[in-house]
Amino acid sequence: MNLFTYDSWGVSSTGFDSSHTFVSSHFVSPLVLASIRTLLCVYSFTTIITCYTYLAHKTATVSLKDVNIGSYTIQQGSAAIGQSFSFFTYLTFWCLGFYFLFASVHTFMYAFKTRSYLHNTFPRPLQLAHSLYYSTITTFPFLVTVVFWGTMNSGWPAGRFEQWINISVHGLNSVFAIVEIILPATQPQPWNHLSIVLAVLSAYLGLAYLTRETQGFYVYEWMNPAHGNASIVLHIAGYAGAMVLSFILSRFAIVARNNVAKKFDLSKENGKFGKEMDSDNASEAWASEVTIVTPPRAKSEGEHVV
After folding, report:
1. What is 139-160 written as a DSSP string?
2. Which residues cross the membrane (predicted)?
3. What pTM value is reported for the model?
4. Which of 88, 92, 94, 100 has the alpha carbon at shortest distance from 52?
């Protein structure tokens, strides 16, 4: 197989997503799927707007640590709004919001017109981009959640805002990804999409160090060489391994979902067939109990019935 063809990346030459799996579901109607995606889109952008509004007028206190770094506290004010575009957490949350925006538009259009821009209008490069987009938003959020709660969280914050924002961007992000894994009828991500996922993660590493050069701070403290170059290498290797595992688990979860949906459909068909068989058997039983009664022999001519 040629690795540099659209077919090898999940965009068939006979037509992109001919079964419309990106805008349909095994379990709910396209309209319900579109509505759920819209709800998640609205929550994502509402969270970001609320966060930035709060930081523009108040200060948030964030306590962090790492596996080899003790607890430290950061005060975040209005400057954190611009700095958030250097944090993998917020970039991932922005991506979730825009994905659900695009996906809801395509799904609503399919629900009402049985066609969509994604399938009927977009050129193949954009169709490929959407497919890759799906592969990233069903992978990145899990890395964010596991890393934050597993290695970086330094205790439950005291402030209500800090509590809510932590739950939203470090917890609900993975819930949103799980919803997008379970509900749509999408096919498993092509294995070569993993290379793009890792490439994006590598590009982010460059962005983080560019931030250090241009704004003078390390996005994450483990990137500071003061803690040792070995620590940086081990963090990068660990995050790359976690990303590979996240992609594999996401992919096999989609395989499992499709298998469950297939068995569910078969069981419904078998149940329907069984009811039809029972109905036929009942009809035959009823027919076998029917007795045909012939009328009495007619009287001979000349006889009158009184």
Report:
1. THHHHHHHHIIIIIB-S--SSH
2. 31-55, 87-112, 132-152, 164-185, 191-211, 232-254
3. 0.86
4. 94
Query: What does R_g of the chain's alpha carbons equal in angstroms?
Result: 30
d(CA 52, CA 84): 9
d(CA 51, CA 85): 13
First to last CA, the chain: 96
Which residue, among 287, 110, 93, has the nearest Cα to 175 in the 3D structure?
93
Please, where are the H alpha helices in the chain? 30-57, 79-83, 88-113, 117-120, 124-137, 140-147, 160-167, 173-182, 193-215, 229-288
Cα dihedral 235, 156, 95, 33 in deg (nearest 10): 130
pLDDT in tens, the chain (306 residues): 566 788 888 888 788 999 999 999 999 999 999 999 999 999 999 999 999 999 999 999 999 999 999 999 999 999 999 999 999 999 999 999 999 999 999 999 999 999 898 998 899 999 999 999 999 999 999 999 999 999 999 999 999 999 999 999 999 999 999 999 999 999 999 999 999 999 999 999 999 999 999 999 999 999 999 999 999 999 999 999 999 999 999 999 999 999 999 988 765 555 544 444 455 555 454 444 545 555 554 444 444 433
